């Protein structure tokens, strides 16, 4: 059985008309008829009923049509893969990124990438570190960008940049006096935190542990799902929060938030891809552009 025979069968089955299928395929009716007959003879089962001058699919033919369509779709996908391996004239790139990267770090890189490869369609989904890693594992994303550590043998993880967390609060907060703050004083605050699974929360917890503080001892009043929600709530309350300097910087400069004088170590941004899945040309070009 060849792909050409499958294409001929699908065209005839969908039109229920041999001559119309032949015209669509730019073949002669006799060539189409011969291809159908060869399939039927080889497997010893009729795919069409000949009723006078009409044809109609048999029950077997209708079942086979479903499988034939799937096979042709897979062949087209394979064809596209080979085309992408030779050039970047077409293709797509599915990305997932955690919030700080997606909102503040990645957009300029995507603009530069799209300028170099305008025919590549880019789809970016935002999540947290945990959900991004899960998407790459499941094949829902070609590349992932995360702010927290990812440990899975099926994934390749490469550092691509750095960021720094800062502790911020509204002006007038008891710790917003500009003087260095002792680590133990952080336990006297009430906090707003990102959800479990976010890179921001994980990095802050690791920093507290480095100062011999148990993150579980923090008085967390609110857990919110985005960086923007954190800084908005912090600016309107007596709660402190830890966010990326990229997020808080403009609000600090505008006087809406104050940076609490407690140094947190830098954290890395990582690119994640699956070790074994096929990597298309578009994803390789994205990785090359970021790492160069």
Radius of gyration: 29 Å
Can you give the helix content as a percent range? 40-55%
* Mean of pLDDT: 91
The helix count comes to: 11
Q: Residue ranges: pLDDT <50 for 5 or more in a row?
A: none
Q: For the terminal residues, how far apart are their CA atoms?
A: 47 Å
Q: Could you tell me the number of beta strands?
A: 11
Largest sheet: 9 strands, mixed
Shape from CA axes? elongated
Which structural category fits the helices and strands?
A: alpha/beta
Range of strand content: 15-25%
Order of helices and strands: HHHEEHEHHEHEEEHEHEHEEH
Architecture blueprint of SSEs:
Layout: H1 3-15, H2 18-25, H3 29-43, E1 48-51, E2 54-57, H4 59-86, E3 91-98, H5 99-105, H6 107-116, E4 120-127, H7 129-138, E5 143-146, E6 155-169, E7 190-194, H8 199-210, E8 219-224, H9 227-235, E9 240-244, H10 245-253, E10 258-259, E11 266-274, H11 281-291
Parallel strand pairs: 3-4, 3-5, 7-8, 7-9
Antiparallel strand pairs: 1-2, 5-11, 6-9, 6-10, 6-11
Q: Can you tell me about this structure?
A:
45% of the residues lie in helices and 24% in strands. The protein is an alpha/beta fold and 292 residues long. The protein is elongated and about 95 Å long.
């Amino acid at each position: 059985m060849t792909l050409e025979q499958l294409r001929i069968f699908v065209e005839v089955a969908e039109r229920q008309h041999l001559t119309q299928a032949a015209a669509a395929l730019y073949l002669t009716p006799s060539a189409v008829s011969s291809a159908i007959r060869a399939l039927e003879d080889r497997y010893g089962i009729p795919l069409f009923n000949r009723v006078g001058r009409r044809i109609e699919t048999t029950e077997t033919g209708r079942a086979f049509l479903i499988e034939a369509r799937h096979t042709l779709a897979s062949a087209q996908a394979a064809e596209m893969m080979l085309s992408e391996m030779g050039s970047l004239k077409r293709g797509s790139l599915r990305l997932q990124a955690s919030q700080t990267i997606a909102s503040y770090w990645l957009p300029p890189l995507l603009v530069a990438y799209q300028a170099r490869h305008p025919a590549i369609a880019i789809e970016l989904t935002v999540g947290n570190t945990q959900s991004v890693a899960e998407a790459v594992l499941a094949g829902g994303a070609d590349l992932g960008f995360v702010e927290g550590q990812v440990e899975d043998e099926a994934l390749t993880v490469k550092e691509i940049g750095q960021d720094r967390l800062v502790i911020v609060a509204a002006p007038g907060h008891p710790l917003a006096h500009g003087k260095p703050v002792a680590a133990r004083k952080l336990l006297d605050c009430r906090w707003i935190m990102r959800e479990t699974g976010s890179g921001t929360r994980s990095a802050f917890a690791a920093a507290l542990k480095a100062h011999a503080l148990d993150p579980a001892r923090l008085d967390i009043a609110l857990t919110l799902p985005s960086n923007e929600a954190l800084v908005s709530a912090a600016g309107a309350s007596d709660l402190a929060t830890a966010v990326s300097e990229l997020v808080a910087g403009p609000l600090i400069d505008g006087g809406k938030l104050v940076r609490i004088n407690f140094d947190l170590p830098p954290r890395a941004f990582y690119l994640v891809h699956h070790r074994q899945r096929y990597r298309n040309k578009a994803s390789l070009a994205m990785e090359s552009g970021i790492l160069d």
